Every structure is written in structure tokens, then in C-alpha cells.
């Protein structure tokens, strides 16, 4: 099907607004390079009127963070009857909530680090010191702390000593009202993007992430610096096959569609651990999905066009 009017939706009001705008511009440029009529729009108060006045053939949401990945914007697109690329609202809500996503994929047989998820109120009502001590007793050290909802590693930190845990929780609660505290798994961090071809999810080459510290944080993700990205990841054929299988399993089990990216850790003994999944992967110059597309010998604009055409078919 020939694409007529495509709207790339980016921006919004989450902490990840600037990253979303960069992703949106990258997708818009890639589609324009293929002579596809495309408009980049922000998710603001003018959006619904513009969709009603000039309905697009399809919307490509490249919104990161809340509303973009929690299903709410996609709910609105369904209300106004505009087709869109990517997961439907219910699947977004499951994937967006990290503890829920971990529970779902664990039932499907994937490994994921042991963890607890607690709202801020628990620490207030039961006493932060007592709760934190029990967490360390149960999960051990080191730990990884992050908001239960959110992306780009905002509010995330690695805890090596009990004395560091309180500050990690404060940082986490600056970005969300609940914290996911996981047992930290050391090893090789990889990201595996999944795109659907003829309705069948297929994994792109895994991207290995090598950072100078133990945390692949916001700066490491989006600013050129000391982070090294190796594609395809330096994995044995057996482990490479298992990270591919894990990403496709997560995509299917969580009910996603069209496109996703799964973040994994491969421990030194070769065990593959699921960390989280992204329903709106970054598309910036430093993002992982475009790197995987390039290494696979594909063109980003062609991939985006194919996904949009398939969704309209």
C-alpha cells in the first residue's frame, strides 16, 4: 500500500521529551528520504484538532516516557479512529510497568533478576531504615534501583554498599512514586530490537553496550562519549541465539506488535536475564535500534516504511 499522509508523533511532556523530539526528527528525515509525505507533530493541545482537520493515513508514535509508552496516547488515537504503528494500549500498560512485565515474562520461562517493588508510602509508613535493611538481607548486594515506570535510566543507580541505598531511593523517587529494587546481575549488557515482517516478529542483531561505569545511564545513552556500542554483540552462537529468542519471547508474551526493544544481561556463565522492554524504542543518532538496523544491512527509512505499510494492509 502506498503511504500518503504520515504523522510522526514526538515530544510530549515527559522527562524524555528532548530525546523523543530527536527520535521524531530522525524518523521524519528517514521517511522523507524515501519521498513519503510526513509531518512531525508534538503531542500537545493542538493534536486532536489537527488529526480531525487533516486525518493522516497512519501515525508513528515516537513518544518516550509516560503517555507515550503507557498506552494513554494510543487510547486517544483509537478513540479518534486513527491507525497507528506499535503496540496497543493494553499491551503498553503491561510492558510499561516493569514489575508486571517481569512477572509475565517469567511465567513464559525467561530469567529475570529477583526483585521487590515498593511504593514511596511503604518507606514512609513502615520506616525507611527498617525496610531498606530487610531488602539488603533478602536480595543481597549489589542492587539495582530504578523507577517501576519510566525509561532512559532516569532515577536509576547501582548500590554496592548498604549506606548507598537511601540516596538511591531518593533519586529514584524523584522520577516516580514506586521503586523496583533488583538483585544486580553483572555481565554483558545487550539490547535486542524486534521488528515484525509479515506479522512475524524477527530479531535484529544484538547490540552490546560497554560503559566506563556499571550504569548505562541517560548521559551514556544520548551523549557521544566513552560508551562503546558493539554490533553484533560479542556472544557465542549459542548465547546469541538465546538472546534473540528471549527478545522475541518477550515481544510475543507481552502482546506487543510491529516494533520493540528488549534489554538483557548475559551473566558470565551465559545465563540470559530479562531486564525490561520498550514499546517505543529510541530512534536518535545514538539509539540502539537504528544501529542494529544498519548492521543488518537495512535502511532505517525502508524499515519504517515497511512497518507502516504492513500496519495499514
Radius of gyration: 19 Å
Largest sheet: 6 strands, antiparallel
Percentage of β-strand residues: 15-25%
Number of domains: 3
User: At the first level of CATH, what is the class of the largest domain?
Assistant: Alpha Beta
Subcellular location: Cytoplasm
GO cellular component, one term: cytoplasm
Main location: cytoplasm
EC number: 6.3.2.4
Please sum up the structure shown.
Belongs to the D-alanine--D-alanine ligase family. By secondary structure, the protein is of the alpha+beta class.
Break the fold down into its secondary structure elements and pairings:
Elements: E1 6-10, H1 17-32, E2 38-42, H2 47-53, E3 58-61, H3 72-79, H4 89-96, H5 98-107, E4 115-119, H6 120-126, H7 128-139, E5 143-147, E6 157-159, H8 162-173, E7 178-183, E8 188-197, E9 200-203, E10 207-210, H9 218-222, E11 228-230, H10 237-253, E12 259-266, E13 272-278, H11 288-295, H12 300-312
Parallel strand pairs: 1-2, 1-3
Antiparallel strand pairs: 4-7, 5-6, 5-7, 8-9, 8-10, 8-12, 10-11, 12-13
Helix pairs in contact: 1-12, 6-7
